[in-house]
Structure prediction request, 224 residues.
Amino acid sequence: MTLRLKSQTILGSLLAFALTLPLATSASAQIEKYVAGTHYIELRAPVNTPDDSKIEVLEAFWYGCSHCFRFEPLVADWESKAGDDVDFRRFPAMWNALMKVHAQIYFTAEAMDAIGAVHEPVFDAINVEGNRLHTEELIGDLFEEHGIARADFEAAFNSFSVRTKVNQAEKRMQDYEIRSTPNMIVNGKYLIATGEAVRTQAEMLEVVDFLVAKERRAMANTGD
Prediction:
């Protein structure tokens, strides 16, 4: 091979490397876009999920939280576009007596298959109308306004199964390491909250998508 030809070959190789370098850098940047300890927290101990075949995404919320009230349309839109392999669930956070009552509202509605009927009205009552919904009577009024018989509501609200779910959720607060609302937990492994690194609720959902994709790849590799 002549010196000129050899130089052209080396130059061509360098050019090809230079062209592929931005692509590699871009892929690396995408992988490192969200970092554990900065944009999300890895839970100290993974929490079991109900269905190993799906990726659970949990929204930790409180009906009395104005941030959760504003987040509701965003997370509802996100849920409508989530893949079939995503199992979206809500988790009522609680660290005081009023939050425990509000968690009881959620689990009562869930037990009565009435989330669709009362979930938004509960948010509106507390955050728009100033009704704290802190007594069984006020809560029963709201359920009744939305087509649920008072007797049926009272039976569910005071049932053993609903109270058990409230107590179980209260104990799981430590497992999920929830310190604020709204928080998102992906597959019982990762906690996302807004803060210095994740400044908006929209970006919080972007981190959720990033972690869902991460779990999706891990599940695909496990299946190989």
In short: Residues 14-30 have pLDDT under 50 and may be disordered. The two ends are 46 Å apart (CA to CA). The longest helix spans residues 3-31. The first strand starts at residue 41 and ends at 42.
